[in-house]
């Protein structure tokens, strides 16, 4: 609890020296927690979070891995590991961790969404199309679903265009335009369409 308070205080501090002192204090508390209560995943999550705040991403991953060993279905653990891999510019490892989180916690929708975003940015956006279409079909009154579907179509179109497949790209651009037009009619007060 003291660690959470110190982290929260560091996040709201405008004075950089004071914020760094708060994070260092949080790290000291996390060290004590992992020493005094090493069997609890939360102790290791706190350690991972403080190391992550200090920019020590590889060490943070190790702490999060300790937490994961103690509590394999801890959402904070996976989120921390994924964020650290991205910070280290290791998207392949982030993707593997996201896939593991989806497999281990299929009822947590945040990881499935993160998996789709990861595939859009680092993989093959065409793999995301069926999921985005299903989400939009299942909840057609949610404007965000239409935006994400159109963004997926556009990403596929751009990928096709970059590969020199003009006719394929044009077809996907048309799907993008059509989706945005339908959404604009469905949501006339939403100016983002």
Structural features, described:
This protein is an all-alpha fold. It contains ten helices and no strands. It has helices at residues 2-12, 16-36, 41-53, 57-70, 75-87, 91-104, 109-122, 129-138, 143-162, 166-186. The radius of gyration is 21 Å and the shape is elongated. The N and C termini lie far apart (44 Å). The model has no long low-confidence stretch (mean pLDDT 91).
TL;DR?
This protein has 193 residues and is mainly α. The chain has helices at residues 2-12, 16-36, 41-53, 57-70, 75-87, 91-104, 109-122, 129-138, 143-162, 166-186.
Rg value: 21 Å
Proportion of residues in extended strands: under 5%
- Helix and strand sequence: HHHHHHHHHH
| Average pLDDT score | 91
> Termini separation (Å)?
44 Å
Biggest sheet character = none
Number of helices: 10
Indicate the overall shape. elongated
Oligomer: single chain
Structural class: mainly alpha
DSSP strand count: 0
Flag low-confidence runs: none
Helix content estimate: over 70%
Break the fold down into its secondary structure elements and pairings.
Layout: H1 2-12, H2 16-36, H3 41-53, H4 57-70, H5 75-87, H6 91-104, H7 109-122, H8 129-138, H9 143-162, H10 166-186
